[in-house]
Specification:
This protein is of the alpha/beta class. The protein folds into 2 domains: 164 residues, NAD(P)-binding Rossmann-like Domain (Rossmann fold, 3-Layer(aba) Sandwich), CATH 3.40.50.720; 118 residues, N-(1-d-carboxylethyl)-l-norvaline Dehydrogenase, domain 2. Helix content is 53%, strand content 14%. The strands form 2 sheets. It has a 6-stranded parallel beta sheet with strand order 3-2-1-4-5-6, with helices on both faces. It has a 3-stranded mixed beta sheet with strand order 7-8-9. Helix 8 links the parallel strand 8 and strand 9. The mean pLDDT is 97.
Length: 292
């Protein structure tokens, strides 16, 4: 059993913290909206789950502290400062951040943790809300090998694949690669499905056939049917994807990478937002083609 602090109980963090508690670890949670923390504690009372009044208080008796919040600024707010995680987590502890954030903030927190004798792992996840709820996320990690090996048994409570990619920041950079791939695949799939529909094809039969070949993808297997039906009220929100792409663009400005396709798809997502689709699933790119 590991004493764990978990900060941030959104659609991802709530079930992730739950999997850690269910696995038998001693979990204390903090959430900015207290009612959400109270609901989590009530749900996991049988596993000894409890809440704290601040990130610092949650981390004070913990061996490891996990965060899953919105962006770089949110992350700094809950980790740094007098009431932050680092003010409570003792020297020798390990900090694991599951937020999708910048590599810059990952390295910043790694350095701040090192000054206090705290190991830091940037560990963004892929798999969406369903992956979090089912405990089958893919976790991409950056940091020191020794810290990763200590944290891995707890991370594995909510993951089906956990990999240390490289030093601090490597996890966030890998998540950027992931999101850039997803953006291109979803746009290609949207165009292909719309083309098939306009050609009068039975798209269930088409997808059943081509998904056995080189065109196969997770997006095709899991989103093609709902895309063809124009259903988007679920899944990974357009707002979140645009946040992630903005992180990619900022990193590209630093490393000189060109992202012309991603920049175009980001503009398409802006059009989806303008149509009221801020919380639609990212597969809603097809809406622009079906309703032009």
């Amino acid at each position: 059993m590991t004493k764990v602090a978990f900060i941030g109980l959104g659609v991802m963090g709530y079930p992730m913290a739950g999997h850690i508690a269910t696995a038998g670890h001693d979990v204390t949670v903090y959430n900015r909206t207290e009612a959400k923390a109270e609901a989590w504690v009530a749900e996991h009372a049988g596993h000894g789950g409890r809440s704290a009044a601040s990130p610092r208080a949650a981390a004070e008796e913990a061996e490891m502290a996990f965060t899953c919040v919105g962006n770089d600024d949110d992350l700094r707010a809950v980790v740094l400062g007098e009431e932050g995680v680092f003010a409570g987590l003792a020297s020798g502890g390990v900090f694991v951040d599951n937020t999708t954030a910048s590599a810059v903030v990952a390295r910043e927190l790694h350095a701040a943790g090192a000054e206090r004798g705290i190991g830091a792992i940037d560990a963004p996840v892929s798999g969406g809300q369903a992956g979090a709820e089912n405990g089958v996320l893919t976790v991409m990690c950056g940091g020191a090998a020794a810290d990763f090996e200590r944290a891995r048994p707890v991370i594995d409570c909510y993951a089906r694949a956990t990999k240390l990619i490289g030093p601090s920041g490597a996890g966030q950079l890998t998540k950027m690669v992931n999101q850039l791939c997803v953006a291109g695949v979803v746009q290609g799939l949207a165009e292909a499905l719309n083309f098939g529909l306009k050609a009068g094809l039975d798209m269930d039969e088409v997808v059943a056939t081509i998904s056995k070949g080189a065109a196969q993808s997770w997006q095709m297997e899991n989103r093609s049917a709902t895309m063809c039906r124009g259903e988007f009220e679920f899944g990974f929100a357009v707002d979140w994807m645009r946040k992630d792409l903005a992180i990619c663009f900022e990193e590209a400005r630093l490393n000189g990478a060109r992202l012309p396709m991603a920049a175009l798809v980001d503009q398409f997502y802006a059009q989806v937002q303008a149509r009221g689709g801020k919380r639609w699933d990212t597969s809603s790119l097809i809406h622009l083609l079906m309703n032009d």
